[in-house]
Design goal:
This protein has helices at about 1-25, 430-455, and strands at about 30-35, 45, 55-60, 65-75, 85, 95-100, 120-125, 130, 140-145, 150-155, 165-175, 180-185, 190-195, 200-210, 215-220, 225-235, 255, 260-265, 275-280, 285-295, 300-305, 315, 325, 335-340, 345-350, 360-370, 380, 390-400, 410, 420. The protein is built from two helices and 30 strands.
């Protein structure tokens, strides 16, 4: 009887585990790419194409969007990469990479400023647009926007999607006197402000579009210059914070830090019904934590916080002393929106400055942490228009990275042996075979012709 009861309990437990596995998502790394090809680029063949197209298939266990990272090297240890390319974020499935291809789809027209004219840009307020060549940040040309009759402006319509997140990179500079460059959208969601220095200033900015129209602006009556501007939409990723909107009635999603008292406050939350209040008891730096941070991963951290007039809110990220944001003791809600790369694995700490005492507090609301996988295609090694060298052996490998920043292990062509060799003027295998067949066939025909000629020759 006891044995049957134990079997019944075991069966019920197994059933519960099965049901949980069906309803609980398990976010794992994507599968390694499969079906590497074509055949003559994965079996050590000699080829003559110095810009080959390599093919493979990506697959994510949770059907998330993915990008691929492909590496090509002339040594088997991949220690001196010829190509190290990250693709755009897209759906899983058959993929390909061609050596020397462009980095990827670009939102802007003539963002690299290499067109000889300025027709891609629409001037506003009689802004004078010209292409300059004397000192580009990259390439051969850059755009100068000079004062006309009002604020310096050059625009492109329908570049952005309102309320979506974007990554903007490139360079701008002022005139060295008093004019300062700006990049923004017409709705003021994305605003990047430079200085009047005439030294190129690098842009690496994440923001949310407030309009579909993209603009170069400048403040002053001189000119500003722009070069190598790229815009890529950031794909949304999984929210990592549990109860970040603080709308759960209890605080069970949060763990107290340094004897803090955690409560949900209904006294003037930033939005909704509740805010998370962190109250000091016996120790400085009281806080609330969640273990969600991984070392080396880049995150976007957003939300709102406020003090009680004495203590100020402060965020510690992953441990190791990394503080991406600190507010003031003001009782007004203060917004934070930070891009941060974690230097250690650990917790998100929502805590405070040490200038309080028992019963002082800080409050938090609408807190969000997401991994950034913006899908900006980029060559870490190699470049567009690259060609592979003659008389060289090549190895290549590729991995998949999904929108949650989980990466597969590399799939390596030909099990790490030479994947293909390039030799100009040397026929590929199929051509060799054809030549051999022609030589053998010609020899056979010549021999037959000689024998026939001998038979037909008149005897003396």
């Amino acid at each position: 009887m006891k044995k049957n009861k134990m079997k019944k309990i075991a069966s019920i437990s197994l059933l519960v585990l099965i049901l949980l596995s069906l309803v609980t998502p398990v976010f794992a790394a994507p599968y390694s790419p499969s079906a590497l090809g074509p055949t003559n680029y994965v079996d050590g063949s000699v080829v003559t194409d110095d810009t080959p197209t390599l093919t493979f298939t990506t697959n994510d266990e949770n059907n998330l969007d993915v990008l691929y990272n492909i590496q090509i090297d002339d040594s088997s240890d991949f220690g001196s990469l010829v190509v190290d390319y990250y693709s755009e974020l897209t759906s899983e499935g058959p993929s390909s990479f061609t050596v020397g291809q462009d980095e990827g789809t670009e939102e802007l027209t003539d963002g690299d400023m290499e067109a000889t004219d300025t027709s891609a840009w629409t001037p506003v307020n009689d802004t004078v647009l010209t292409k300059q060549t004397s000192d580009p940040a990259e390439g051969d040309r850059y755009l100068r926007a000079a004062y006309g009759t009002g604020t310096i402006r050059a625009t492109q319509a329908s570049v952005l999607v309102k309320d979506n997140d974007f990554h903007v990179t490139g360079y701008f500079r002022g005139d060295g006197v008093s004019t300062t460059p700006r990049i923004q959208d017409a709705g003021g969601g994305i605003i990047i402000v430079g200085t009047s220095s005439n030294t190129w200033q690098e842009i690496d900015y994440y923001g949310t579009a407030g309009s579909s129209q993209f603009e170069f602006r400048a403040i002053g009556t001189g000119y500003a210059e722009y070069d190598g501007i790229k815009i890529h939409e950031i794909q949304p990723t999984t929210e990592l914070v549990t109860d970040g909107d603080m709308e759960a009635a209890d605080t069970s999603a949060w763990t107290e830090y340094r004897n803090a008292t955690l409560t949900k406050s209904t006294d003037n939350p930033h939005s909704g019904t509740y805010a998370l209040r962190v109250t000091q008891t016996t120790l400085n730096y009281p806080g609330a934590t969640q273990s969600i941070i991984s070392s080396g991963v880049t995150y976007r951290l957003t939300g709102w916080a406020r003090g009680d007039g004495t203590m100020a809110p402060k965020i510690l990220f992953g441990g190791g002393g990394l503080v991406p944001w600190q507010g003031t003791s003001s009782t007004d809600w203060q917004e934070f929106d930070e891009i941060v790369t974690a230097t250690s694995t650990g917790y998100l700490y929502l805590y405070s400055t040490p200038n309080g005492s028992s019963d002082n507090w800080v409050e938090w609301d609408d807190v969000s942490v997401t991994k950034i996988v913006d899908g900006t295609p980029v060559y870490e090694a190699g470049s567009p228009s690259l060609t592979l060298a003659d008389s060289s052996d090549y190895y290549w490998r590729v991995r998949t990275i999904n929108e949650d920043s989980e990466a597969s292990v590399y799939s390596t062509a030909n099990s790490g042996q030479i994947a293909f060799s390039i030799a100009f003027g040397v026929p590929e295998f199929a051509n060799w075979m054809l030549i051999v067949i022609l030589i053998v066939g010609s020899s056979f025909i010549i021999q037959k012709s000689l024998k026939l000629s001998t038979k037909l020759s008149p005897k003396e």
